[in-house]
């Protein structure tokens, strides 16, 4: 189930040329739909600290300048979104799935991600974030609100205030804890008891991904997840938002979900009957559909994440008429 190699690999440094080599493989990322979409695996350093390495998969048409970028949860790596990368790329979207470097502070993370977007020559992007990934996506949108870099957000099983975990008092001590203790903390939020086969596979896969993270990676993510912080919604009120959540057991409380609804009263809501903590793995078809529905509102605009050739003429015509009507409405006011 775990993808380990892709069609290309590069290591980039700012100001240096990119080196790409082709690697054979029969993993999930080496399917024809990903190969045809030019799926590139890259490790990129944008900070002065050489240890801060962004790892990512960049799939789909590189002519798209407003792709959707996927942020993983605490336990995740760039590989956890392989179902989304393969499906969305097959439909003509440009998708970037990434893994964060070690950042201990939210502002430091936001500054690093802004540099990454500059390096990739991306002005504005759509962000999909799962759990911690969703919180980081909101904080980045908030941090860059004066010069917006986020056009829309899809928040999956996410939260807006770290105090819901009741661990803000321990956030500054995670760096001292050994890896096995950090993993035990994360595993404590995984589903317990009987689950269906797809959810069991998803949990096994995420446990494997968790095992691949070292002590500093885990400690820094838990620090970001638990240090005292909350989203200021008035700073991102113009960002289109879709909230994806599940009705069965997950690490998020009902109160946390209700708080998200209050924070984004105009957001689209996508509810999954089941899916646990990792619906993007075990309910990937439904999640991919919700992502597609969210991104469809931008078809025919400069912020489309899809190649124009993959959008039906009828859909483009409808979108153009909607834009024309909106412009007429603005002119009348």
From TrEMBL:
Q: Which cell locations does it reside in? A: Cytoplasm
This entry carries the following GO cellular component terms, namely:
cytosol; trans-Golgi network transport vesicle
Gene Ontology MF terms: CD4 receptor binding
Domain spans labelled AB hydrolase-1: 107-185
**What Gene3D superfamilies does the database record attribute to this sequence?**
alpha/beta hydrolase (3.40.50.1820)
* Major localization listed first in the record, in broad terms: cytoplasm
Q: Does the keyword Cytoplasm apply?
A: yes
In this chain, composition skew of type Polar residues spans: 17-29
Entry annotated with the keyword Ribonucleoprotein: no
Which key words tag this protein in UniProt?
Cytoplasm
Stretches for region Disordered: 1-30
Q: What family does the database annotate?
A: Belongs to the AB hydrolase superfamily.
**Can you say what this protein is called?**
Maspardin
Organism, per UniProt? Gasterosteus aculeatus aculeatus (three-spined stickleback)
Organism placement in taxonomy: Eukaryota, Metazoa, Chordata, Craniata, Vertebrata
């Amino acid at each position: 189930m775990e993808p380990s190699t892709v069609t290309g690999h590069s290591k980039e440094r700012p100001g240096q040329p990119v080196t790409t080599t082709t690697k054979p493989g029969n993993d999930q990322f080496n399917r024809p739909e990903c190969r045809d979409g030019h799926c590139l695996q890259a490790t990129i350093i944008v900070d002065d600290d050489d240890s801060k390495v962004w790892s990512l998969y960049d799939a789909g048409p590189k002519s798209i300048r407003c792709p959707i970028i996927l942020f993983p949860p605490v336990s995740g790596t760039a590989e956890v979104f392989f179902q989304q990368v393969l499906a969305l790329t097959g439909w003509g979207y440009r998708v970037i799935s990434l893994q964060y470097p070690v950042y201990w502070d939210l502002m430091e993370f936001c500054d690093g991600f802004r540099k990454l977007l500059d390096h990739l020559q991306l002005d504005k992007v759509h962000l999909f974030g799962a759990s911690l990934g969703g919180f980081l996506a909101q904080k980045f949108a908030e941090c860059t609100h004066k010069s917006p870099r986020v056009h829309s957000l899809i928040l999956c099983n996410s939260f807006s205030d770290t105090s819901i975990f009741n661990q803000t008092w321990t956030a500054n001590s995670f760096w001292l804890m050994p890896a096995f203790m950090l993993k035990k903390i994360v595993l404590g939020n995984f589903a317990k008891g009987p689950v269906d086969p797809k959810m069991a596979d998803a949990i096994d896969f995420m446990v494997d991904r968790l095992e691949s993270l070292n002590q500093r990676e885990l400690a820094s993510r838990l620090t970001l997840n638990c240090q005292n912080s909350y989203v200021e919604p008035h700073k991102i009120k113009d960002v289109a938002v879709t909230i994806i959540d599940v009705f069965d057991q997950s690490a998020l409380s009902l109160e946390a979900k209700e708080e998200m609804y209050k924070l984004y009263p105009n957001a689209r809501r996508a509810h999954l009957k089941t899916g646990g903590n990792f619906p993007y793995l075990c309910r990937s078809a439904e999640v991919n559909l919700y992502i597609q529905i969210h991104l469809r509102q931008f078809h025919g605009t400069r912020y489309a994440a899809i190649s124009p050739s993959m959008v039906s003429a009828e859909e483009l015509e409808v979108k153009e008429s909607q834009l024309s009507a909106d412009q007429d409405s603005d002119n009348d006011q």
